[in-house]
Amino acid sequence: MNAIKRFGSAMIVPVLLFAFFGIVVGLATLFKNPAIMGGIAEEGTMWYNIWTIIESGGWTIFDHMELAFVIGLPISLAKKAQARATLAALMVYLVFNNYINAILTLWPSTFGVDLSQGVENLTGVKEIAGIPTLDTNIIGAIAISGIVIWIHNRFYDKKLPDMLGIFQGLVFVTIIGFFVMIPFAFLIAFVWPYVQQGIGSLQGFITQAGYIGVWLFHFLERVLIPTGLHHFIYTPFEYGPAAVNEGLKPYWITHLNEFANSTAALKDLYPYGFLMQGNIKMFGCLGIALAMYYSTPKANRKKVLALVLPATLTAVFAGITEPLEFTFLFIAPYLFVIHALLGATMVTIMNMFGVVGMMGSGFIEIAALNWIPLSSNHGGIYIVQAIIGLIFVALYFVLFRWIILKFDIALPGRKTDEEAKLYTKQDYQNAKKEEETDNQEIAAATYDSEYEEKAVYYLEGLGGKENIKDVTNCATRLRVTVKDPDLVKGNDYFTKNQMAHGIAQSGQSIQVIVGLSVPQVRDSFETKL
């Protein structure tokens, strides 16, 4: 499970890029639509040409998704020399695709794929970095990158005889990968066409699952967030091949202009009810935040607002929900389950009323990829979406507030003991002066940033340098494997003075919920190690 969690966190590295590039393509599609922009957006105008150039840049990540994942995974999963592991993964991946190209060129009838017909005339094949090859999508990229990372972690430090010293390190890892890819390429050339057939069958099954499939997808995507395994739910749908081979996000963006110009029902044009969890982030999190605020004694509401407001805005606009969700997750886990149940139900009802689209993130991405480009012909659907969403905001608010008050859940601002108060930065600095020794005070005064300060604080709470086996991160969490979990301090240590949102522990696997600054904290953490 620890390995799976580490892999899930590594997936976030390339995934983080998709939101920006998706917004760029969405805005370009909007500004090139004459139905919205008028004559200025007619083909051939300077306005149209400028946005065509911008759009071409926005397609970069979608046209080269495989390379993004091949390069992105070693950044988190290589235990040393991540930059060299990244180069090795890229080289071996290109070697693999050259092998596939050669195999299918030499024995087209044996493997059932004739590349001489041209990539554009075949299904199941793709040109990657100029190499016509089987379209293994990100699954192939992840598999090969994973193999290279495994080789790198075990053989990068291998000492070779002096006469072969030039082949140590990066070169040795690449050499091993070079020869490992030969049988692997033959295996993929034989098996993958059958896998592609299976994917087609899976797509049919998912489509036939109807609203049950929509509800289950969104429930699992939300309820698995504490484990970090939610990446395995949405990634195959968003980037392929669970629903459509190229992934629903590229598919949606590719056809966005077609959808915008059509007056047919949007659900008929795009019959997929997945990847709408952004509605949970916008409406559900808003209802939860209101419930947290209004269940707090009036004397403390101003302080709670300072905590809840930025976390809620981050969830609603950027689609990053963990700062808000982890505020109550570890105090009352059943609230999180209720959150997942309500959210999945809300999205399923929206889908029943015809709401579909690319709505996996927050307000900004949803507006850019859905509301703005499609409102002229499909605005009625979004009015329905807003009405259902606001109804569920009220449901969330009433239910969460009632549960918080009924069971006296000790959320921030509701506790009466000193430990539960919301601390300011000045409170924290004063506490540090009282608790630390003179040497620790001197060390604290030399911190270059708050990231370094947090890194040292976490390192102490995790049992010190000798207790750390490895470290990585996802979008908001520092993920650490420790040798002795008994040396790890409790949740109160990490949440004290707002140093972190909390921790999740499963045996030797520790997740410190840091927030959006986790990449900088991880850099400082590794430097201290």
TrEMBL record:
Residues of the PTS EIIC type-1 domain: 1-416
Topology versus the membrane: Multi-pass membrane protein
An annotated GO cellular component: plasma membrane
Annotated InterPro entries: Glu_permease_IIB (IPR036878), PTrfase_EIIB_Cys (IPR018113), PTS_EIIC (IPR003352), PTS_EIIC_1 (IPR013013), PTS_Glucose_EIICBA (IPR050429), PTS_IIB_1 (IPR001996), PTS_IIBC_a_glc (IPR010975)
Gene3D superfamilies: Glucose permease domain IIB (3.30.1360.60)
Alphabetical UniProt keywords: Cell membrane, Kinase, Membrane, Phosphotransferase system, Sugar transport, Transferase, Transmembrane, Transmembrane helix, Transport
Residues that span the membrane, as ranges: 12-31, 51-75, 87-108, 128-151, 163-192, 269-292, 304-320, 326-345, 352-374, 380-404
Domain PTS EIIB type-1: 452-529
UniProt cross-references to Pfam families, sorted A to Z: PTS_EIIB, PTS_EIIC
Top-level taxon: Bacteria
Transferase keyword on record: yes
Main location class: membrane
Record's subcellular location: Cell membrane
GO molecular function terms listed in the Swiss-Prot or TrEMBL record: kinase activity; protein-N(PI)-phosphohistidine-sugar phosphotransferase activity; protein-phosphocysteine-sugar phosphotransferase activity
Entry annotation: catalytic residues: 474 (phosphocysteine intermediate)
Gene Ontology BP, a term: phosphoenolpyruvate-dependent sugar phosphotransferase system
NCBIfam families linked to this entry: EIIB_glc (TIGR00826), PTS-IIBC-alpha (TIGR02005)
Record protein name field: PTS system maltose-specific EIICB component
Source organism: Oceanobacillus oncorhynchi
Upper lineage: Bacteria, Bacillati, Bacillota, Bacilli, Bacillales
